[in-house]
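tool=predict chain=A
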Amino acid sequence: MDNNKSVKSTKSIGYLRKKYTSMLEVAGIENAQMEVKWLISYVTDIYDVFLHADEELDDIQCMKLKKLVMKRASHYPLQYLIGDTYFMDLRFLCREKVLIPRTDSENVVYCALEHAPEKVISVLDMCTGSGCIGISYYKYRFKDGFDDHVTLVDISEDALDLASDNARLHNADVKIVQSDLFKSLRDKDGKPKRKYEMILCNPPYIKTNDINYLMKDVRDFEPRLALDGSRDGLEFYRKIVKEALDFLKPEGYLIFEIGYDQYMSVFSLMRQAGFKGIKKLKGMDQLDRVVFGHL
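tool=predict ok
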């Protein structure tokens, strides 16, 4: 009888939480305890795993949890495992081949909301990925009574499929366009089909040689297409700053996410192109995260 209880205890949430937390710590996973909690919640639909520490998983749940933990131990991203993450307090679906939304990118949305005029406007989210920036902007503006026209653009079909799913999840009435930057946004004569009051963008900005030094979770599993900003990390800033001049209305804003050490470089590109009032925003880590300016 005691032996049976002992066997059963190895299936309890408390036992498995401790066991797998140790395993992920050995694998070098930061916040291992919290991640195991999320994985247990994902498998069991039990949110408070501490309150239910004595509750036991069935065999299928145990097998599923073990597979998830083993895969996470290889540094496969947690967000891909559970299929979602939170951005601007909104749930966004996550899938392989698409960049995972990160808190740093929320600064782009905050900046856009702060500088959006008190009228309905057109907004372009370039290099949209999962759609988190454009969709979050739309949701918060719509909540405030503005039905802005928001266009999400990316070259990746995988990204646009996911952005479309996220738009449906949030009932966001956004336009989705596949394009190599601005190419598909021009008519046959090369003129912009539409102009915008704001262009928001989190472009690839990691220097090519620096990608090898990123965390394994990012380097080995997230799409290089969304990371590689060329030798100096500035290729996409150069292209977007130049073409944004055609697509922004007078006084229109260009708002970029940047790497922590890229402010002066992007500032110079924008100033040379004629942008005014160029400023930066710092993230919660007190590092430069956003640069923005207007025509």
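Residues 1-7 have pLDDT under 50 and may be disordered. Strands lie at 84-87, 90-93, 122-126, 149-154, 175-178, 196-201, 248-257, 276-282, 288-294.
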